[in-house]
Amino acid sequence: MYSLDYGSYNGSGAFGIYGVGEIERSAGELRDFVADVRARTGAAKVGLVGHSQGGLMPRYFIKNLGGAAVVDDLVGLAPSNHGTTNPFAPIAGSSCPACRQQVAGSAFLRDLNAGDESPGDVSYTQVVTRYDEVVVPYTSGYLAPDANVTNVTLQDLCPSDTSEHLRVPYDTPTIALALNALGRSGPADPAFRPACATL
User: Fold this and answer.
1) The dihedral formed by the CA atoms of 19, 50, 144 and 92, expressed in degrees to the nearest 10
2) Which domains are present in the chain?
């Protein structure tokens, strides 16, 4: 297992806080990182799991930077696939280019989502939560229905699960869904039911 810190930018072009730089540049960092991992491991393809922008950004890599040839699975946890109407996203835009790009209706998102939202021989699993306060509405995390796409709302499976945007990556049922996706051919099984935590 490998992890990547990406998107460092402080407004002047110099490195600073991670995850705020232009998504296109971050996707280039992911392309280089995946190439390095494949060289180290000898793997033909990789499975990617990303949270929030980390669920969206790899789609640019897949669509525009050759990722479709080397990615087997993309699992998005509370991904911002169609952006957010959260009023703080545009405000943060001056110091966070990626925030501006994730505003619902942005030119970046219109371009990324034009045509096939799930291109290539890649399996796409999207896990969203009704309690998402960052990606608003939470359904904007879904991808257009397709044979290689599974969209899951966490509370449809575990009604008492109150995980919100930041807790989703640590949520036991969410982790089970990600493992189901990575452990089989295709996206997560739509019939899969993870064990729900009891409160």
Assistant:
1) -20
2) 23-182 (3.40.50.1820)
Nearest to 161 by CA among 149, 145, 175: 175
Give the tens place of pLDDT for each residue, 98-131.
999 999 999 999 999 999 999 999 999 999 999 9
Q: If you search the block for the tokens 């998402």, which residue do you land on?
A: 132
Give the Cα separation of 19 and 23 in Å (integer): 9
Residue 173 · residue 158 · CB < 8 Å:
yes
In whole angstroms, give the CA distance from residue 103 to residue 132: 15
pTM > 0.85: yes
**107: three-class secondary structure by DSSP:** helix
